[in-house]
Specification:
The chain is of the alpha+beta class. It contains three helices and three strands; from the N terminus they run H-E-H-H-E-E. It has a three-stranded antiparallel sheet with strand order 1-3-2. A hairpin with a 4-residue loop joins strand 2 (58-62) and strand 3 (67-71). The protein starts with a helix and ends in a 9-residue tail after the last strand.
């Protein structure tokens, strides 16, 4: 599994595990870092997830403080 697929699966699992919280369908990458206790820099995670944005799999919103991602097929990230 490549890094892009790894972080896509982590994003999907995070959304599924927090599905009762409607605000967790759009996920900040640093939330993922904390959830998986991963030392990968946030900028690197964003790089891999941005590949999925370019493919039309994920949506993305960036502010000066965070980048949030979500699945475009559904907000809950359900598999097609």
């Amino acid at each position: 599994m490549d890094k892009e697929q790894l972080w896509l699966e982590r994003l999907r699992k995070y959304i599924e595990d927090n599905k009762e919280d409607e605000h967790r369908h759009k996920v900040c990458t640093w939330w993922l870092r904390l959830e998986y206790n991963d030392e990968t820099p946030t900028a690197q995670i964003n790089y891999w997830l941005n590949k999925s944005v370019a493919k039309g799999i994920l949506g993305k919103k960036t502010s000066c403080y965070y980048t949030k991602y979500w699945f475009l097929n559904t907000l809950k990230g359900e598999k097609r």
